[in-house]
Amino acid sequence: MEFFNIILIIGIAQGFIFNGVNFYRYKFTNTPILYINLFVLALTLNNLQALLIEKEIYSSFYYLRHLLVPWYIFITPLFFAFLTKHLRLLNNIKLVLVTTTLVFCISIIIRLFVLYSINENLNEFSFLSTLKSYNTIEEFIGFLLTLLIFIYCIVVFIKAYRSSNDILKFDNLIWLKTFFIIGFIAILFWLLAIILNTAYSFEDSSIIYSPLRVITSILIYWVGYQGMYQQKIISNRISIRKNIEQEYFLSNSKTKVNKNKSKQKELFYKINYFIIEEKKFIDPLLSLELVSEHLNYSTSQISLIINKFTNNNFSDYINEQRVLLAKRMLANKEFKQYSILSIGLESGFNSKSTFYNAFKKHTGITPAKYRKGIFNK
What we know:
With 377 residues, the chain is mainly α. The protein has two domains: 2-243, Rhopdopsin 7-helix transmembrane proteins (Up-down Bundle); 246-376, Homeodomain-like (Arc Repressor Mutant, subunit A). Helices cover 74% and strands 0% of the residues. The chain has helices at residues 2-26, 31-54, 62-67, 75-86, 93-121, 124-162, 174-199, 206-243, 263-277, 288-295, 299-310, 314-330, 340-346, 352-363, 367-376. Helix 2 packs antiparallel against helix 8 (206-243). The longest helix has 39 residues, at 124-162. The termini are far apart.
């Protein structure tokens, strides 16, 4: 139990620090970040209450000791609100949050009434038995509500993913898939704890909830960090895409094909025009097959022409254009406010590692050193 409590304390401290820093930094200006902060806060308060009860901090206060504020009721609705805003959907967040708040308030009022009634009219044995029955009923109703909203979140996510939601241009959403897996595991542990607590008499039921507390402590860190990180990257990328001007795209091609040139050079101009002038190189899904299909030439022909005129294979040729664009943005003071990773992703790279590796291959230094060197001069 001490081991579980240490993890719980770390998670609680981290949750409050996370909320304090981000509420101060963003001051409610970014709605998705606001909801992810409130989600983390609900998890943190739920775990804090469990710790205070475990340590018997409330032992001398009857109503505080047995109140059990149902903070967990807010967890999935707040995540639903974040998910909706993150995916830029038009779901009715207000209805879900208002309904959840009403359930929360009604739950507290009913519990206070029950505590008052059984304290006045029952002996100690009957009191504990009745209170346990009520706790089980209340928790099971909260569990069903959480499960239903969690399933609804999955449905919303799948629909958005299959409909090629615009956010997929900026976020592959893999981190959200991982969250749903962890969330499903947490729900299973919660259901198991309810069943065990109902079927058996435990002097200290906190032991059966300990694995669930550990998982929620992990979620406080992981979801909070990932949500904030992805939201910041997406905001940067959307802003970069809006502010990039034609002059920031490098062009080595001619806009018209010279019919007097050789067929090979003519094909190279076509390739160059399609990839650079039409900005196809910033598409992370660009492939040799896609270029081949668009220009109606075989992949071997296109690969041969690129190699002949650039001394690079297709991958290096594309990455070179992306690095050139990234260099322009890194060297421009108008883009200094954006993170290096956001610039790399908007230049066409699909991950931090591919961007850094390609940049170092073509320049000999990392993007961070390049930007630092430019602005130091």
